TrEMBL record:
GO terms for molecular function: transaminase activity. Signal peptide: none annotated. PANTHER family: TRANS-SULFURATION ENZYME FAMILY MEMBER (PTHR11808). This is Aminotransferase class I/II-fold pyridoxal phosphate-dependent enzyme. Belongs to the trans-sulfuration enzymes family. Its cofactor is pyridoxal 5'-phosphate.
Amino acid sequence: MHITPKITPIYQTSVFKFEDLNELELYYGEPGSRYMYSRNGNPNSDELADAVNLLENGVGAIATGSGMAAIFAAIMAYCTAGDHVLCAADIYGGSSALLNLELSRLGITVTYVPFEDLSTDLTPYVQSRTRLLLCETISNPLLRVIDLRATAEACHACGLKLVVDNTFATPIITRPFDHEADLVIHSVTKYISGHSDVTAGVVVARVAEDAERLKQISMLFGLTLSPMESWLAVRGLKTLRLRIEAHCRNAEAIALFLEQQPTVRTVHYPGLHQHPQHLLAATQGSQLFGGMLSFQLEDEAEVVNQFMRATKRFPFAPSLAGVDSSLSYPLGTSHRSLTPQQQVDLGITVGLIRLSVGIEPVEELLTDLEQAFASVTHTMQTN
Ligand SMILES: *Cc1c(COP(=O)(O)O)cnc(C)c1O
């Protein structure tokens, strides 16, 4: 019987069999022609890595057990003890914690670069052993958009590699390699898999040498992703384009709605004309502005609490990018470990709420937000 499944089955196996010594020689002689041991390679994790690699227009990719593992692998690809890295000040909390708490122990030091200085002259920040700059295409939680080409030029002028965490944008909106980035990272946990049911990551390389390094790092540090998680992520990825279009449409409608609310002070969404990088976002992206937005209520914990309790369609769940909407609170979660001064510098205050807008019918989301704001107004009046 010849079985030809349309979809790649889940190769839930830790090891593969060899017919004889000839086949073993093929494994070593023709890399990619056979599988041996799933930590070193598995058809499901390769399928995921290849699919993201194709979307990002890379030359090779690895799938990892989480987005954090992907960031670790990317830094290890370029750095060794005694090296120094630059990191955008607006960065995922896990990335700065990894650099501050763990990589520092391995002798890799970090300097944070404020948003305004990223795409200019980096010389004031560069040391003799600075290797790379890590940044995000669209930052969290203020949705600042980085000028990737200018940042890549600034990096390359100083001999640094540019590592871009493209989790918020996805390759549907922006492809960092089109703007000369050197490595692209994703928390696959977010939009790539898209259903809040997988923890995974990926690193994509633009040159073969980096792809080889990543492969070895993944094998030897054991950063590998499991077959089942890979399979789920591949299934999610198939609808990425459709989902992103729907996320963006809904987020835009909600951003416009939020702007009209008297209790909302500011709305941060790259699709709004008054967003400081709106034009850049439009030219650097595919005229899509993402599914994430944040907004500022009065800086009163009780106002925030009331909003959170009142909304039914935006449960407080500190992650993002699922097909179902959710809400997060940067001050209490992702940016909790920053000093009060750093929080102020980044604009993360008591009243800041972040929405991950899902793909539900938008009128249902708007109706829910309407009643949540009515309830906030009521609370403010009775206090
Ligand atoms: C979630 C996230 C990460 C970390 O990914 P995990 O899959 O949670 O390990 C890294 N970068 C960004 C921008 C993220 O949102």
